[in-house]
Amino acid sequence: MSLEALIAIVGMAAVTFAIRAGGLLLANRLPTTGFVASWMKHVPGAVLAALVAPAILSGGTAEAIAAAVTALIYIVSRNLFAAMLGGVLAVYLARLALGA
């Protein structure tokens, strides 16, 4: 292994550790009530939507079907794992049926 590769690996490990440790250290200092707390509660959903929406919009029929199935399963069951499993199965079956 070259020295540059070793430095890159150690550097990435250090940055990853620093990000995780920083998150843990800052978590206790975040507000638990008020506008900022309410805003922070919605950030994960907004990030997920920002990641998923382009895939749905640029995807085909199979992706649209899978998105609808996933949303329906979550609305009915309120179980995130079941919704993800149903979505993966739906996109697989839709691609298989549509020949995509």
Summarize the structure.
With 100 residues, the protein is mainly alpha-helical. It is built from 4 helices and no strands.
Percentage of residues assigned to helices: over 70%
Strand content: under 5%
Q: What is the number of strand segments? A: 0
Sketch the major β-sheet.
none
Distance between the termini: 42 Å
The averaged pLDDT comes out at 92
Give me the secondary-structure category. mainly alpha
Order of helices and strands: HHHH
Task: Extract low-pLDDT stretches.
Answer: none
Apparent shape? flat
Number of helices: 4
Radius of gyration: 20 Å
Overview of this protein structure:
With 100 residues, the protein is an all-alpha fold. Helices cover 85% and strands 0% of the residues. The chain contains four helices and no strands. The protein has helices spanning 3-27, 35-58, 61-77, 80-98. The chain is flat and about 50 Å long. The model has no long low-confidence stretch (mean pLDDT 92).
Topology, element by element:
Blueprint: H1 3-27, H2 35-58, H3 61-77, H4 80-98
Features:
4 helices; about 100 residues; about 85% helix; mainly alpha
